[in-house]
Write a structure and sequence with these properties.
With 362 residues, the protein is of the alpha+beta class. The chain folds into three domains: 11-102, Acyl-CoA dehydrogenase/oxidase, N-terminal domain (Butyryl-Coa Dehydrogenase, subunit A, domain 1, Orthogonal Bundle), CATH 1.10.540; 130-238, Butyryl-CoA Dehydrogenase, subunit A, domain 2 (Beta Barrel); 240-361, Up-down Bundle (Butyryl-CoA Dehydrogenase, subunit A, domain 3). Helices cover 45% and strands 14% of the residues. The protein has helices spanning 11-32, 44-56, 75-85, 113-126, 143-146, 239-265, 269-290, 296-321, 332-341, 349-361; strands at residues 130-133, 150-154, 157-164, 175-181, 191-197, 203-207, 218-228, 232-233. Strands 1-4-5-8 form a four-stranded mixed β-sheet. A four-stranded antiparallel β-sheet has the order 2-3-7-6, with no helix packed on it. Strand 2 and strand 3 (157-164) form a beta hairpin. Helix 6 (239-265) packs antiparallel against helix 7 and helix 8 (296-321) runs antiparallel to helix 9 (332-341). The protein is globular, with a radius of gyration of 20 Å. The structure holds flavin-adenine dinucleotide. Residues 132-135, 139-141, 166-168, 210, 212, 217, 341, 344-345, 347-348, 350-351 line the site of flavin-adenine dinucleotide (FAD).
Length: 362
């Protein structure tokens, strides 16, 4: 009889995942328990101490390309690990509190060798914060239509002007990428991407307080912000396609964190059924992305479903725990607040429903 014997995870990946789980339980959670429940980061000494351990254990920047000092793991493997890395109080927005490394915005891998060496490699090595600026005051759901910030070439420089909204980490990042219109006549083909360094004259970031405790978003103002021509990332006018291709892949790790926190919140029957469904949707799409196939619809399905499951599971968990569900002594209170943002950030639920419906109607 022919049987299907797929879907067994490689032993090596299971071992790695168990190692990450142990690290979170034994090293990260004990530190979190003695600091402010709303802390955005670990105390600097603890961060340095734990980073030395993850680097020594080969657990640093596992998802980044090997040639630049990362672990070279694919989207699927990272989804498995992030489900573990996110299972602690600040894990939804700061998986592993950053001690497993921070990946720079993936568009940087579309840059030249010189750009990668100058920006990506130090960010990987040092675990810097970086930022990624698409959303504008006129809306984030449809960046192709909403981007009004502009870039104008002047000799060997580009001059950037405009305002970006809700840009995470922009006030503390070493550098980031901004998407601006460089040709008003060309619609989505008229948007280009530039690297902007901290301290560039004409770049300001004003933190905006939200219900999210980590990675405070900012209003970013570009006022005659001048960057050298070599800071153009990818081809002129190709910024949006560069970004959307890579954003698709990012939606799987993002969904894996939704799953991890939902799994940490509760394991009762209905939640368990939804968690398993979410896990399979993430794995299915991540496999497809790793095979190099178009996984845009799967990315939308994974993001939509995992963020909505997260909201339902945490809401149920708060109810079951009564007063303790909303007490800062336990992580549920923070997860409850932060989970709400997951249905808005990285494309709101309505936008993902449109992507899925459009594909069905096509
Ligand atoms: C804490 C936080 C951090 C963030 N970090 C970043 C960041 O680092 N970089 C970045 O670029 N952005 C970031 N964002 C922005 C985020 O991506 C946007 O908030 C999101 O894309 C939605 O855009 P918007 O807020 O402008 O809402 P809008 O686009 O104005 O949408 C408002 C509502 O209308 C709905 N809607 C819009 N169009 C349609 C339609 N055609 N049909 C039906 N409903 C529709 C949306 O689903 C939403 O519910 C962050 C946001 C938050 C809250």
């Amino acid at each position: 009889m022919t049987t299907f014997d797929g879907f067994r995870l490689p032993d090596e990946l299971l071992a790695l995942s168990a190692e990450v789980r142990r690290f979170v339980r034994d090293e990260i959670i004990p530190v979190e328990q003695r600091i402010d429940p709303d802390a955005a980061e670990l105390p600097a000494d603890d961060y340095r101490r734990l980073v030395a351990k993850t680097k020594a254990a080969g657990l640093w920047c596992l998802g980044a390309p090997e040639e630049y000092g990362g672990g070279g793991l694919g989207t699927f493997a990272m989804c498995l690990l992030l489900e573990e890395m996110s299972q602690h109080r600040m894990g939804l927005y700061n998986p592993g509190c950053g001690v497993f490394g921070r990946n720079p915005p993936p568009v940087i891998w579309g840059g030249t060798k010189a750009q990668i060496a100058r920006y990506a490699v130090p960010a990987l090595r040092e675990g810097y914060h970086t930022f990624f600026a698409i959303t504008e005051p006129s809306g984030g759901s449809d960046p192709a239509g909403a981007i009004q910030s502009r870039g104008e070439r002047r000799g060997d420089h580009w001059v950037l002007n405009g305002t970006k909204m809700f840009i995470s980490h922009a006030h503390e990042a070493e550098w980031g990428v901004v998407f601006v219109r460089t040709d008003r006549t060309k619609g989505r083909e008229g948007i280009s991407c530039f690297v902007v360094e901290k301290g560039t004259p004409g770049f300001t970031a004003r933190p905006i307080q939200t219900i999210r405790t980590v990675a405070v978003p900012n209003e970013v103002v570009l006022e005659d912000c001048t960057v050298p021509a070599e800071n153009l990332l990818g081809e002129e006018g190709r910024g949006l396609s560069l970004c959307l291709d890579l954003l698709t892949r990012l939606r799987f790790p993002y969904s894996a964190c939704n799953l991890g926190v939902a799994a940490a919140a509760q394991m009762l029957a209905d939640a368990e059924v939804e968690l398993r469904a979410a896990r399979w949707l993430i794995w299915d799409g991540a496999w497809k992305a790793d095979r190099g196939e178009d996984a845009r619809v799967e990315a939308s399905i994974a993001k939509l479903y995992s963020s909505e499951v997260l909201g339902r599971v945490i809401d149920g968990a708060v109810q079951i725990h009564g007063g303790y569900g909303v007490a800062k002594e336990f992580p549920l209170e923070r997860w409850y607040r932060e989970a709400r943002v997951r249905r808005i950030g990285e494309g709101p639920s309505e936008v993902h429903r449109m992507v899925i419906a459009r594909a069905l109607l096509r």
